[in-house]
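Dear colleagues,

For the upcoming journal club I promised to circulate an example of a predicted protein-ligand complex. I picked one with nicotinamide-adenine-dinucleotide because it came up in last month's discussion. The inputs are reproduced below in full, followed by the predicted structure.
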Amino acid sequence: MSQGRPVKVTVTGAAGQIGYALLFRIASGHLLGPDVPVRLSLLEIPQAVKAAEGTAMELDDCAFPLLQGIDITDDVNQAFDGTSVGLLVGARPRTKGMERGDLLQANGGIFGPQGKAINDHAADDVRVLVVGNPANTNALIAQSHAPDVPAERFTAMTRLDHNRALSQLAAKLDVPVTAITRMTIWGNHSATQYPDLYNAEVNGKIAAEQVDEPWLRDTFIPTVAKRGAAIIEARGASSAASAANAALNHVHDWFNGTPEGDWTSVALPSDGSYGVPEGLISSFPAISRHGKWEIVQGLPLNAFSRDRINASVRELTEERDAVTQLGLI
Ligand SMILES: NC(=O)c1ccc[n+]([C@@H]2O[C@H](COP(=O)([O-])OP(=O)(O)OC[C@H]3O[C@@H](n4cnc5c(N)ncnc54)[C@H](O)[C@@H]3O)[C@@H](O)[C@H]2O)c1
Ligand SMILES: O=C(O)C[C@H](O)C(=O)O
């Protein structure tokens, strides 16, 4: 039986691919838990509101016990009024031949107004996941417009990369994904991301010691880092269901905690950890305790790892400078 007051969850881009893969699972309890009622607030651009209404009709037709209302709007302030969870998905996806950073001009302008609306209208406990690409820098744009909201409540999604790394390593070693712990995606959700097998473990032993180095460096890392482009090549469109799944994993763990002795990957505003410049939204190993992400401290980084992380952080710094030049933060 669903208990208590519903948690308001705002999803932008509700009429899009990811939105369609996400909303029914949120209403089924996969976001916050099987006993947490939700109220959905769907934000779309005016010309897509009718499509969002169609999705809402289907949500109604599922008669979900946990779904206690759906609001649909093109008004950003109304969309975030009283919201506790913001899933900022609405943004243009890249197409074949583009890098995610090429979307900065097209999408960057979306996230400032949404950050301000969150600042002015969201609930005090609001937590935000930015999915729209380039996700890390779009999260920085949104966060920079919400000075009254603790910075760490703004995150960007690298959980899809994290899940991809688990899947690739499991296939290589012919183990279930549940045999793998302590996986980390460092840096930017881009081709410079660094999936770290020197701290990951398979059946309790360091992963890097169980694979050959050429495979690790020349196959595993590029396969994970460029998986988004491979999906676009194969599907003719960017990832949707796997992205929605990762968004659900991210928020579910944020609210419910990460497993004891393990961690996940979250792009968070840096506090200077691991030499990542303060304020950059970069992916770190993170645990969730009492609804708060904490960066896992003290992991050893060899020279190779350090170089890879530095390269991705350099890209994030360049993106931050670019959006500053554009007046977006
Ligand atoms: N971070 C990740 O791991 C990850 C994974 C997959 C996709 N993505 C990104 O997620 C975004 C959405 O992907 P998609 O496949 O759903 O795209 P899509 O084109 O299918 O849907 C995007 C939706 O956003 C809406 N939208 C555009 N501007 C908006 C605004 N200002 N407010 C509200 N809604 C707005 C559009 O009308 C559209 O319905 C893309 O930028 C894509 O690159 C990120
Ligand atoms: O690669 C993309 O453009 C979509 C998304 O960021 C992904 O990683 O699948």
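Two points we might discuss: The two ends are 44 Å apart (CA to CA). The chain has a mean pLDDT of 96.

See you all on Thursday,
B. R.
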